C-alpha cells in the first residue's frame, strides 16, 4: 500500500457483531463460547451460518508462560470453528504476523474484495489459563532467551518497562500523569455490560497506590488476563446495503515491523517511535485521511504506555508531549472537546481482549449502535493494536465516499 490508496478502500464493510461476557475464567470451554458468539454475530447481521463463506481469525495464544495450546480450549483456530459452524466456508484462514487484529481484518477485507469470499466471519478468542499467567517452567535458556532470561529480563512486563522508563527519563515525565489514562479507560469500561470491570471504575489515588510489578509499571498499567470472545461479520459494500444495520467501511490499514534486529523482548523507545511514525504515514496514505479527520482514535492500551506511543506516532501530539497531552481532561470522552482515545474502555477497561475493544468501539459508534454512549457526529475511527512498531491500525468510516 506504500505510495498509494488502498485498492479495496471502502469496498468492504462490517455489518454485525457479537461479544461474550469477559470473565477471569469462563465456566465453559473457549470453543463453546466462540461458537455461540459466532452464531450471534451472524444473526445480528441478519444472516445465517449458511450465508458465511469465509472464516478468518488470529489464534495467537498470548502468554509468556508454559501453558499448553489445545484447540477448542485455549485456542480456537479458524479450521476448528469452520468445521462446526459453516459447511459452506470456502475461505478459511488464520493470520500469523505483526498485529493480530489489523492482520485478520486485512485478510478478511482482501478475501471479500478479491472474490475469494462474499461474507467473512472475523473473530478473536482469548483464554486465561488457570494458575499464574506467566508461570514459567524453564530450567535452561536457549536461543535469544539465553542472553536475557538468566538476568531476569523475561516476559512482556520487562519488555514494556524498558521503553516506558526511557520515556519518563528522556521527557522528564511524571509517572503520576499516567493516572489520567488508566482512570479514563476504567471509567469507560465500567459502563460496558460485558466488561470484566463493569461498574468498577478506578480513582487516581487507587492507581498510584497499586503495587509496582516491573518498575515503572504497576498492576493497573497492565490489562487483566481473561476469557472472552468477539466476532464480526464483513461483506461487500453492495451486499451490506441490503442488511439491517448501518455499514461501517474499512478504509485502509497498516502494520509495522522493527527496522533493526533486536532480541525478542528488546523494544527501545526510538525503535517504537521511528517505526511507528512510518506505520502511521502508510496508514494515512492508504486510507486517504489524516489525524485531523479522525473523530474516534481508539488507541491500544494492553499496557498503558502504549497510549503515549500511539498518540505521538499517529500525530495527535508532538513526540515527547503525550504525558502532558493526556492531562486536564484532554482525553476525557465525556467532554465535547476531549479526544476520545479510550471511549470503548480499551484493554485496561475491559480485560485482555487485545485490540478487540478498539475495533468494537469504532464499529458501534460509526454504526450508531453505542446506545447511551453514542457520540454525535462521529464518522471516522482508527482502531490500533499492540505497539506502533510491532502492531498496526485500521481506519473505519461511516461514509463510503
From TrEMBL:
Q: What is this protein called?
A: Peptide permease
Q: Which residues form the Thiolase C-terminal domain?
A: 278-383
Question: Which InterPro entries did the record assign?
Answer: Thiolase, Thiolase-like, Thiolase_C_2
Species source reads Parafrankia colletiae
The GO terms this record gives for MF are: acyltransferase activity, transferring groups other than amino-acyl groups
**What start and end residues bound the annotated signal peptide?**
none
Question: Which CDD domains does the entry link to?
Answer: SCP-x_thiolase (cd00829)
